[in-house]
């Protein structure tokens, strides 16, 4: 029988380190500040923003929210981003996705200064990730590595299979695992016979948004499973992995809820603090 990773405990330990860094900044008169732009009516987004606000308060970070009206033009949003880029009290800017469909997400993300791009989606930060130099790492992938690091894994030569290739999870986490010397296979909706790859995985990261896509016959004995999915089924939140069945076969698995989602918010806070430190 495997173990469900206690992600809450990992996050609590990391918060202690982070509070110390925030205190050091405060002694220098710097309060790390995050600006959040939201342009949607999405309930899940509102809940993410509430969680972010709560952790900002807990760690002593400042957060300012810009809730945009539905008829806002792209030019007005770009002007707001530009003023936040020039505001010296703001260290980090977050565009809460999704946004109203008439706005061009990529144009707005490109406008955010790479130095304030807390999600690490600007091409400059993604390029740094590709070449393996220090930049801002997207929050969910960074959080996944925090969880894996806490298990003291020797990454070199491990087969890591990532199911999903989105720009916010699948692609960056594949790159991070490659940078850590894993042998990486990235699967997606056009992959033929998914099971033949997932069964090879020492580390399996699943980010598809398909409830219980991964069943116990698809995983390797003693492997590590990171379930990124957050799906609502019959009023319950479930992941992309059939946790209870898979648990009987693997070494470790992350829970859903209270799994990767917790480290995503933690990584965001880490990125804000890092940006304030390097301002
Ligand atoms: P996207 O919808 O952007 O991407 C889903 C990916 O899954 C795509 O690459 C898609 O392939 C692939 N996929 C779909 N169906 C299959 C299939 N049958 N077999 C293999 N691959 C498949 O989702 P996100 O990456 O944004 O999110 C994925 C999940 O993670 C969602 O449940 C989301 O809610 C959750 N999430 C959780 C976070 C957290 O903090 N815990 C943060 C972000 C997301 P293709 O590219 O070919 O379409």
Sequence-ordered SSE layout with sheet pairings:
Blueprint (H helix, E strand, L loop, with lengths): L2 E2 L2 H21 L5 E6 L4 H17 L2 E6 L6 H13 L5 E5 L8 H7 L11 H9 L7 H12 L8 E5 L6 H10 L3 E5 L6 H5 L4 E4 L17 E4 L3 E3 L2 E3 L4 H5 L4 E2 L6 H18 L2
Helix pairs in contact: 1-10, 2-10, 6-7, 6-10
The protein binds NADPH dihydro-nicotinamide-adenine-dinucleotide phosphate (NDP).
Summarize the structure in short.
The chain is of the alpha/beta class. It has helices spanning 7-27, 43-59, 74-86, 105-111, 123-131, 139-150, 170-179, 194-198, 243-247, 260-277; strands spanning 3-4, 33-38, 62-67, 92-96, 159-163, 183-187, 203-206, 224-227, 231-233, 236-238, 252-253.
Report on the structure:
The protein has 279 residues and is α/β, with parallel strands linked by helices. The radius of gyration is 19 Å and the shape is globular. Strand 2, helix 2 and strand 3 form a beta-alpha-beta unit. It contains ten helices and eleven strands. The strands form three sheets. A six-stranded parallel β-sheet has the order 1-11-8-7-5-6. It has a three-stranded parallel β-sheet with strand order 3-2-4, sandwiched between helices. Helix 2 packs across helix 10, helix 6 crosses helix 7 and helix 6 crosses helix 10. Bound molecules: NADPH dihydro-nicotinamide-adenine-dinucleotide phosphate. NADPH dihydro-nicotinamide-adenine-dinucleotide phosphate (NDP) binds next to helix 10.
């Amino acid at each position: 029988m495997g173990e469900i990773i206690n992600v809450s405990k990992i996050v609590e330990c990391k918060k202690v380190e982070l509070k110390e860094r925030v205190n050091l900044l405060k002694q220098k008169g710097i309060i790390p500040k995050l600006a959040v732009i939201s342009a949607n009516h999405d309930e899940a987004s509102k809940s993410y923003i509430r969680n972010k606000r709560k952790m900002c308060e807990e760690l002593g970070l400042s957060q300012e929210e810009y809730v945009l009206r539905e008829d806002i033009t792209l030019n007005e949003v770009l002007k707001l981003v530009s003023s936040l880029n020039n505001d010296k009290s703001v260290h980090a800017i977050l565009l809460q996705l999704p946004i109203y469909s008439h706005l061009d997400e990529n144009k707005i993300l490109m406008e955010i200064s790479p130095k304030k791009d807390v999600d690490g989606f600007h091409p400059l930060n993604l390029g740094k990730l590709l070449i393996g130099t220090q930049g801002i790492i997207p929050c969910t992938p960074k959080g996944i590595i925090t969880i894996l690091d806490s298990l003291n894994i020797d990454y070199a030569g491990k087969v890591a299979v990532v199911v999903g290739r989105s720009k916010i999870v699948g692609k960056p986490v594949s790159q991070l695992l490659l940078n850590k010397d894993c042998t990486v296979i990235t699967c997606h909706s056009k992959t033929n016979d998914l099971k033949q790859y997932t069964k090879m995985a020492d580390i399996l990261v699943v980010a598809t948004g398909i409830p219980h896509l991964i069943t116990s016959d698809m995983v390797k004995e003693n492997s590590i499973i990171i379930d990124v999915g957050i799906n609502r089924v019959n009023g319950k939140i479930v992941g992309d992995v059939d946790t209870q069945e898979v648990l009987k076969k693997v070494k470790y698995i992350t829970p859903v809820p209270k799994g990767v989602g917790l480290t995503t918010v933690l990584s965001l806070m880490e990125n804000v603090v890092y940006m304030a430190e390097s301002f």
